[in-house]
Amino acid sequence: xAVYYTVFQSLEPRSAEWLIVLLVALQVxxxxxxxxxxxxxxxxxxxxxxxxxxxxxxxxALYRLSSNHALAMYPGPLPCKVTKLWMVYQANxxxxxxxxxxxxxxxxxxxxxx
Length: 114
Description:
The protein has helices at about 1-10, 15-25, 30-35, 40-65, 80, 85-95, 95-105. The protein is mostly helical. Helix 3 crosses helix 4 (about 40-65).
């Protein structure tokens, strides 16, 4: 698995310019195509950005739930496998320690919570 992480990290963009291109500028292309068929450029841009970001979130969630994920072998609740917001919610209730203890009682000594 060390080779997998090394290859993955070597492919990640490290400069701010690449992040701007991937997160902002890349959606301008589909928005420009959509403008031709829509009455409002703002609507076309909103549709392009929302489609892009929803597809990123959906693909990330599907990967985290797949058997190809590096932590797939560890048991844990579904919300914790998909996002860390569930643990934030549990922390805000003030009973995070009880929740984690209950998870260990249910799943054993190793539990996937993030």
